[in-house]
Amino acid sequence: ILSLYLGSGTMLRLILVLGLFFLASEAARCHENHNAYPPPSNDTIPTYELNLDLPPKERWAHIVKGKKASINGLVNQIIKQLPKKLRPVVSKFLENHGKKALSHMPQDYAEELMGIAEASGVDLGYIVAMNLAYEITGVGCTSIVAQAKDGQIYHARNLDFGLFSGFDFKNDTWYLTEQLREMLFNLRVMKGGKLLYNSTTFTGFIGLLSGSNGRFSITVDSRFDDNLDYYLLRWLEGKWKGLELTQLTRRAIENNQTYEQATDYMQKADIMGPAYMIVGGTKPGQGSVITREPAKTVNFWTLDQQMKRGSFYVLETNYDHWKRPPFYDDRRDPAEKCMNMTGAAGMNKASLYDILSGKPNLNSLTTYTVVMHLSEGVYEGYKQRCPPPCSPW
User: What is the DSSP string of 118-184?
Assistant: First the structure.
């Protein structure tokens, strides 16, 4: 897979070699960034409200107006990852088939995307492509659900995105990652005049990558399998009815009332591609990692199971938890070492943020960190940037 991205690019090969060296040297160590929380003021991001009582086409208009250049720039950066000969072909496909792809989505979400295109002035095909970004490229992440000694549940995540989108050596970051950081915001979703849920997202993107509704919390991490884009292509052809992952998680948080209902729904519904869905609750033992293939659940790993084994957390990066992560991308071991050193007695939102601010879980791809403590009504999302030297992923 790496060779498909790298081709013969000497500079990208150099990044790969340096990344492998960095990860190999750091994998066995905990690098908790003590006192990273609270983050500095320049890491705060804007907050907007989304009113679900409005017609779908009107819901996002106040957020995306005037953002045409940034959304176009983001999608063009994604297209630049493709081989040069394919770029005009893909651009033409998006222009011609964007509206057709909407017919495969829930009607209200499809109308939201049409409204975003109209309000921003961005071609509808580009808006559709942006909202399929998880399925097209995936996101490298770390998600943790932990139970403190007093039984309180904490849920946090790093979102890493933009691999092989071109590296900015001057600022030690990926171009796409840097663009995404500037499009970040926290979202308060309202219905009937009341807060329905919180999430953290990007301008023009309607799915749920991270969120909580006061009863349960959800984050998603990419999972890779041998199907590559098989189900995505079938979906585009109208031959597969699975939901795009982040639209499914949004459905879950909007329509389910309990942790149990949400985990049951997310295990049973068909989706567009493989995934990890990490869920936290409010009661002791309520935490889980749902390992999915498009048509079935492969594994349901729970915090309750971990507690019986003497642990106090479930931790997911981008590899099946019952297998060893590859040596070139082992973010699991450093994070587990930090968690074990902190212990259940030291677990709180600040210590969890500090752990996720440690390298290599904090890396050149890290876009944001979210910490959630539902029992106290805590939902906090912050922009993240790794101070060099950093692992490129």
Answer: HHH---HHHHHHHTTHHHHH--EEEEEEEE-TTS-EEEEEEEE--TTS-EETTTTEEHHHHHHHTTE
